Amino acid sequence: MPIVVQKYGGSSLADADRIRLVADRIQGDRERGAALVVVVSAMGDTTDHLLELAAGITDDPDPREMDVLLATGEHMSGTLVAMALHAMDVPAISLTGAQAGIRTDTSHGRARIANIDPARVHRELAAGKVVIVAGFQGATEESNVTGDVTTLGRGGSDTTAVALAAQLRAERCEIFTDVEGIFTADPRLVPDARLMPVVGYEEMLELALQGAQVMQPRAVELGWVNGIEIAVRSTFSQHPGTRIKEDRQVEQRNKVRGLATDRHVAKVTLVGVPDVPGIARRVFEPLAAAGVRVDMIVQNVSHSGATDMSFTVDRADLAKVKRLLEPIVREMDARELTTDSAIAKVSIVGAGIHNAPGYAARMFGALADQGVNIEMISTSEIRITCIIAEDDLERAARALHTAFQLEQPEEVVEASPEAAATSKMLRG
Predict the structure, then answer these.
(1) 266 and 325 in contact (C-beta within 8 Å)?
(2) Average pLDDT in the 245-253 region?
(3) What is the 8-class DSSP label of residue 195?
(4) What Cα–Cα distance (Å) separates residue 201 from each residue in 187, 206, 222, 226?
(5) What is the DSSP string of 62-93?
(6) Sorting pLDDT into bands at 50, 70 and 90, what band is 420?
(7) How far apart are CA 97 and CA 103, in angstroms?
(8) Do residues 4 and 174 make contact, with C-beta atoms less than 8 angstroms apart?
(9) Which helix (H) or strand (E) holds 232?
(10) What average pLDDT does the segment 52-71 reach?
(11) Could you give the CA distance from residue 348 to residue 369 in angstroms, rounded to a whole number?
């Protein structure tokens, strides 16, 4: 039978009724002839509850023990889904990440998958069982034995699912959530947001990196590298959802495809930094060593031998950044270190952006018409991102969605015979 990997998020497993609904869906897919590997996230707000418990004990928990604690959320989901299937006379077995053969590096809290030994999963599938795998986790490998439990970071169950699909050579990978697919914008901010039936890997990766939380960026990367088509669907309907795949028509669309927003950012500014070689290294090396991901970086023109340097980080890392940089700022004799956590990020994404003029002007004009001030700007070949005040985010998102007519169904512009021939030649 063809292997299908499914992943169910925390909202799909929030209580006993939803777990039974998921089990019904699994049973139906199994009866249609699929060998199923099901990856589960922790139920509802379980992970947040575990974090609160740890915070009640200490404000500096040991990273290893924190991973052991957080992994229990997915263990609980897996066993409950297996029990629900048993109650329906469906053979099933729950496995931890380590039991499923997932091995990682030693970076607790943000581990990366090093390899997967699928032998146990294949044995259980061959025995006719649905295999339930705890997502978001793995274990280090030390001298060919299972080492310590690790977790893969926020959204890590997506990564687990796509990595397993690649290793098992699955027919497809389905990500089930509480929305029907990938929308042109966050429907909670933009009521007119439209479901996209197909999104290319590159565009989806940019949307995920810039704040679209339906997919985890590392999962999209894994799908792209391994050629795994990913379907994002709703647990609670039969809608086909959105397919993330290689999009051969991407160059003919020539438009903005989607809008990403992110409230989980903060801006850090070093004022009056000496404009001499080596300053940037002194600032960013300790951040990298501490696992802080720096996003946008802007340095002003130097005046009188000094300059200002601003960059953005995840809001959750802001306290760590201040603790690391305050002594460095004093050592380099900069004027001051300032922070702003009341900001947000809004991005337009589309593979056609770099081929045609006018997108930046239209974006900036739409924001200006709404009285939204732009604090920072960053671009890539398929993206333009602006940092704005968090209070302006909803107004900005709606204005941009309207300005680029994202509520309108897409019309693919047919390429000329010459362009089609060139595209075919470039693809080999």
Answers:
(1) no
(2) 68
(3) B
(4) 21, 9, 10, 11
(5) -HHHHHHHHHHHHHHHHHHHHHHHHHTT--EE
(6) very low
(7) 8
(8) yes
(9) strand 230-234
(10) 93
(11) 17
Q: CB neighbours (10 Å) of residue 67?
A: 23
* Fold designation for 3-178: Carbamate kinase (3.40.1160)
Which of 240, 238, 117 is CA-nearest to residue 172? 240
As a whole number of angstroms, the distance between CA 27 and CA 23 comes to 6
Q: Are 230 and 221 contacting, i.e. CB atoms less than 8 angstroms apart?
A: no
- Domain spans of the chain? 3-178, 251-428
27 torsion bin: left (phi>0), alpha (psi -120 to 50), beta (else): alpha
- Supply the CATH classification number for the domain 251-428: 3.30.2130.10
Asked if the model's pLDDT at residue 155 lies above 60, the reply is yes
Half-sphere exposure of 115 (CA within 13 A, CB side): 5
How many helices (DSSP H) and strands (DSSP E) are in the chain?
13, 20
| 400 touches 350 (CB < 8 A) | no
* Residue 321: both structure tokens together: 């950044």
- Sole residue written with tokens 């109650």: 87
21-36 pLDDT, tens digit each: 999 999 999 999 999 9
Bridge partners of residue 379, in order along the sequence: 384
Q: Enter the tokens of residue 356.
A: 């045609």
